[in-house]
Design goal:
This protein folds into 2 domains: 169 residues, Rossmann fold; 208 residues, CoaB-like (Rossmann fold). It is 32% helix and 24% strand. It has 14 helices and 21 strands. The strands form 6 sheets. An 8-stranded mixed β-sheet has the order 12-11-8-13-16-17-19-20, with helices on both faces. It has a 5-stranded parallel β-sheet with strand order 2-1-3-4-5, with helices on both faces. A two-stranded antiparallel sheet has the order 6-7. By secondary structure, the chain is of the alpha/beta class. It binds cytidine-5'-triphosphate (CTP). The site of cytidine-5'-triphosphate has 15 residues, from helix 12 and strand 16.
């Protein structure tokens, strides 16, 4: 049984929130509905109150409610906050941190995990402003569910439909709701220092050119975020990526493998190190001046970069749990096993990065993982990088429990 604070936005899908309340009650959960002004045009407080068997809240200025239960208390009395349906407007307000009505004030004041189930017209969903806001919410530690694709109430077709209420309820981490606080709060990794590297490195060739790789940094950033949500102190050492810093994470930006190595070493000691970065193995001797076509043929000489993971494996301050990644296109498991032993890591998180451009793990939002440890190989089903991050943090937490 969990206590859900259900914030209902003003969209046509609001009627499905009523159905969700029914399912949640049947499953034994307590639901406290909060309706925005817009939501009340689609569903009434009366019907929600009857289904939820709970008072329904609509206004920040209702003094009676403030006396009985203040808005801060209301935002924290639940185990989990669900925004369903989340309109483009409500998502934008959340991303901007506005507190203009009861719903947005509760969302800003809460210290509980928040899940957002968006529903809107396909063009509104695909608009860069909405996608920017969604990315911001995810970076802030909020779980945003992907909308379903299909025919919409407005007559158009595409992504933007609210998933079935049962699917939304199933996606809520209600079992772990009480053990998934925001960064800084008590959690399964409270008191632990987690060190994460993420993204590519850039090795300069001359003042305007670099050798790079396709790593987006998404998986590493998601892991840093999930660790912070579990209460850890997180140091994220990031190569050149354009991702927002997750809430509660301290970030050090670096460019080259050598800089990443130095930043990792000065950030020790750590209880856990998760080396997700795609570090360049080699660096050229950079030219001070821009190389000109006429200078060719180009003859670059490379020197070996330090192997950060292997250096940690041999370090006197070796983190208690040392985790590497292995991005492979062939013999995924065998290569990962070899890397685990060579680099003296406890676990290697192996993933297959082959695949056509656009569908590859590198840069994409999904990942399929094989966790290689001394106990063997654990194959995980394909999941979003955020879900993979959460599962990895849960596994790490188990090691410490
Ligand atoms: N890694 C590192 N420093 C390097 C190279 C890799 O810390 N200079 C880490 C990565 O962050 C990852 C793991 O080692 O956690 C494996 O990286 P990968 O590039 O797959 O391994 P390599 O040792 O470079 O092996 P190869 O290029 O032969 O596949």
């Amino acid at each position: 049984m969990a206590r859900i604070l259900l914030i209902i936005g003003g969209g046509i899908a609001a009627y499905k929130a009523a159905e969700l309340v029914r399912h949640a009650r049947k499953a034994g959960h307590e639901v406290t509905p909060v309706l925005t002004d817009g939501a009340q045009h689609f569903v009434t407080p009366m019907s929600l109150a009857a289904l939820a068997e709970s008072p329904v809240y609509t206004s920040l200025w209702d003094l009676k409610d403030e006396v009985e239960m203040g808005h801060i208390e209301l935002s924290r009395a639940a185990d989990h906050v669900l925004v369903c349906p989340a309109t483009a407007d409500l998502i934008a307000k959340m991303a901007a941190g506005l507190a203009t009505d009861l719903a947005t004030t509760l969302l800003l004041a809460t210290d509980k995990p928040v899940t957002v189930a968006p529903a809107m017209n396909v063009k509104m969903w695909q608009h860069p402003a909405t996608q920017r806001n969604i990315a911001q919410l995810r970076a802030d530690g909020i779980t945003v569910l992907d909308p379903d694709e299909g025919p919409m109430a407005c007559g158009e077709f595409g992504p933007g439909r609210l998933p079935d209420p049962e699917a939304i309820l199933a996606a809520l981490p209600l079992d772990s709701a009480t053990t998934a606080p925001l960064a800084g709060a008590e959690g399964s990794l409270t008191g632990k220092h987690v060190l994460v590297t993420a993204g590519p490195t850039h090795e300069p060739i001359d003042p305007v050119r670099v050798i790079a790789n396709k790593s987006s940094g998404k998986q590493g950033f998601a892991i840093a975020q999930a660790a912070a949500q579990a209460g850890a102190r997180v140091t994220l050492i990031a190569g050149p990526v354009s991702l927002p810093t997750p809430f509660g994470v301290s970030r050090i930006d670096v460019t080259t493998a050598q800089e990443m190595h130095d930043a990792v070493m000065t950030s020790l000691p750590a209880d856990v190190a998760v080396m997700v970065a795609a570090v360049a193995d080699w660096r050229p001797q950079p030219s001070d001046k821009k190389l000109k076509k006429g200078d060719g043929p180009l003859d670059l000489k490379f020197s070996k970069n330090p192997d950060i993971l292997a250096a940690l494996g041999d370090h006197p301050d070796r983190p208690g749990l040392l985790i590497g990644f292995a991005a492979e296109t062939d013999d995924v498991i065998e290569n990962a096993k070899g890397k685990r032993e060579r680099k003296k890591a406890d676990w290697i998180v192996a993933n297959d990065v082959s695949g056509p451009p656009g569908e590859s793990v590198m840069g994409g939002d999904h990942n399929t993982i094989h966790l290689v440890s001394a106990d063997g190989v654990d194959d995980w089903e394909e999941a979003t990088k955020h879900a993979v991050a959460q599962k990895l943090i849960d596994r790490i937490s188990e090691e410490f429990s």
